[in-house]
Design brief:
By secondary structure, this protein is α/β, with parallel strands linked by helices. It has seven helices and eight strands. About 40% of the residues lie in helices and about 20% in strands.
């Protein structure tokens, strides 16, 4: 869905269970918006607390460490406190406040704020160039780690044998736009292989 990698690596990341998501502060404006976007999804498990436990430190701590992904939708001080309660090294924390924007160890946004992020952008540009060289048009231009090339459906079927991508839009009877996205798990070897396969498949 988000990671360009071979299917074995994707399966390892995805695991055998749906990812668990907890929104700490789901009663606030931001939390409600995120909840509305996620609660109807069938590919994740949304963890919630009953109203009587919503502000209980023990209950919040339990779900903060049970979840795979946590959204902190809290005032700055409360967000700092909640983040300090996370002891599970595998929990990914997304803070919607301003508390951690410049804090060491936290990543704000996606532009070139670290060598790792800059590398993801370079990889995405390489993928875009490979698509362009192979004759693909783009559904929309993107300067980010996400690219939206348009492929023939037959080419997408072949790409799906080795890669994970997100369907984006139907363009016409025989073409679809997809999203290809680089992430922390994307290696240069993944990108090399993808670019080579795009060229080969589109040349058939």
């Amino acid at each position: 869905m988000y990671i360009i990698a071979n299917k074995a690596r994707w399966a390892a990341w995805e695991g055998i269970c749906m990812k668990k998501v907890f929104i700490d502060g789901s009663a606030g404006t931001t939390g409600l918006r995120i909840f509305d976007r996620l609660h109807g999804r069938t590919d994740i498990q949304l963890l919630t607390l009953p109203e009587s436990e919503r502000k209980l430190e023990s209950s919040r701590k339990r779900l903060l460490n049970e979840a795979d992904v946590v959204f902190l939708c809290l005032p700055d001080d409360a967000a700092r406190e909640a983040a300090s309660w996370v002891e599970n090294p595998d929990t990914v924390v997304l803070d919607t406040s301003t508390a951690h924007r410049t804090a060491p160890g936290w990543c704000y946004g996606f532009p070139e704020l670290s060598p790792v992020q800059e590398a993801r952008l370079r990889q995405a540009k390489r993928i875009a160039k490979a698509c362009e060289d192979a004759g693909c048009a783009f559904f929309a231009p993107s300067p980010t780690n996400q690219q939206f090339p348009i492929f023939p459906d037959t080419a997408l079927e072949k790409l799906a044998e080795k890669y994970k991508y997100s369907y984006w839009a139907r363009v016409d009877e025989t073409h679809s736009a997809v999203r290809l996205c680089t992430s922390w798990a994307t290696t240069d070897e993944n990108v090399d292989a993808l670019c080579k396969d795009i060229a080969s498949i589109m040349a058939e």
